[in-house]
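[agent] plan:
  1. take the single chain provided in the ticket
  2. run structure prediction with default settings
  3. attach structure tokens to the ticket
  4. add a short note for the reviewer (M.T.)
[agent] executing step 1
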Amino acid sequence: MNKNELNPDASPEAAYGARLRSLREARGWTQEALAGRMDYSSVHISFVENGRKPPTLPFSKGVDVALGLVGTDASFELEYRRIRHGNLLEGFPEYVKYEGKAVEIRLFEIGIIPGLLQTPEYARAVADGDVRRGAITPDQAEERVTFLGRRQAALVRPRSPMVLVVMDESCLRHAVGGTEVMEAQFQRLVEVASLPNWVLLVSPFGIGARRSFNLPMNLLTMPDLSVIAYAESQLRGHLERDTAAVLPLLTAYHQLQAEALPQAASVAMINEVRKGTL
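[agent] step 2 finished; step 3 output follows
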């Protein structure tokens, strides 16, 4: 029987289907054999492999059970979720995998509270704003908020990472979701600043040109002490692992920390801005 040639570069769904076929065939299984291990027909499997039917979460979980990939970085459930997160910038889903293993996380954000610090209400207000602008669908908004919740939960582990955050003052001044949402968000910031594995600093408007970055910047220190950088613009994200490219960014982050307000003064500023929202 002739086999269709698959083009995994055609779309994320095509890549999913091509990998499914490759792993199935590596085990010497026909589509019928795989179907016998799942609650799906061989025709359904064929359609997914050939990109004629999009994968679903239940299907992906069934594939993982059949192929022994449950809970691994190679799971089809993870790949399905990356497809659903197609509205995320390039490189970000890969960055999140590293984030969940990092021993130290350094963040700089402009204009909006960093995701790892957002309350669910604040995160939903941001996502709903994107829906109203037509940038994403309601389903994508829901998935985005859920995705953020998983990122935050991944930080709570036996050896939690050290998290250093520098927020531009604009993050505090940019009102999102109304008074109640902002009050809860400010309370969250103050609480986080008291935790032993978090350092929360504000980069005030007054530092002007001494601010090291003009775009958000994420730096991860991994267990082997390598450093990974992730930066994004309005249109794209970029993950950088090359040491020669990352070290100048780490130096710039250190310079930014030196220019930012100390944590006590940063918390005082948060509380001052907070009073203005009541």
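[agent] step 4 note for reviewer: The first strand starts at residue 104 and ends at 109.
[agent] ticket updated
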